[in-house]
Amino acid sequence: MTTIRDVPLNCPEATYVEPAYKEAGMRNFTNLVRTMLNDYGVYHVQFNTINKETLIDAKAHPENYPTLMVRVAGYSVYWTDIAERVQDDIISRTEHTF
After folding, report:
1. Which of 57, 35, 51, 56 is nearest to 94 (CA)?
2. CA 2 from centroid of its chain's CA atoms
3. Ordered per-residue pLDDT tens for the chain, 98 residues
4. Contact in structure between 70 and 90 (CB atoms under 8 Å)
5. Tell me, what's the pLDDT at 15?
6. What does the H/E/C string look like for the chain?
7. Is 44 in contact with 74 (CB distance < 8 Å)?
8. Which residues, in sequence order, are bridge partners of residue 75?
9. What does pTM read for this prediction?
């Protein structure tokens, strides 16, 4: 069995090239956070990096997502361990666009 320790660093599988759009997306994201903290006085923000459709599907079919974790009020919790009303709240505030 091959492990990560067996993969030479110069092989193509270990080479990562950031896509061009990533830099612009990160710039937008950092600008959003700076604006929230500096201009609007927000002192706490948490991010879930999953889309709304996945959360809706996880609510309908929890057996397919046994290890899905989300952030709730500053802590991480398994999706299947939270109450339905909390799941609904997370789904309702999941996606925002720039």
Report:
1. 51
2. 29
3. 555 566 555 555 555 555 666 788 888 888 988 998 899 888 877 776 788 899 999 999 999 999 999 888 778 899 999 999 999 998 988 776 55
4. yes
5. 55
6. CCCHHHCCCCCHHHCCCCCHHHHHHHHHHHHHHHHHHHHCCCCCCCCCCCCHHHHHHHHHCHHHCCCCEEEECCEEEEHHHCCHHHHHHHHHCCCCCC
7. yes
8. 72
9. 0.56
Q: Of 96, 82, 87, 98, which Cα lies nearest the Cα of 49?
A: 96
Amino acid at 42: V
Q: Is the dihedral of CA 25, 27, 29, 31 positive or negative?
A: negative
Token pair 């709240």 in the structure block, residue: 89
Residue 80: count other Cβ atoms within 10 Å of its Cβ. Answer: 15
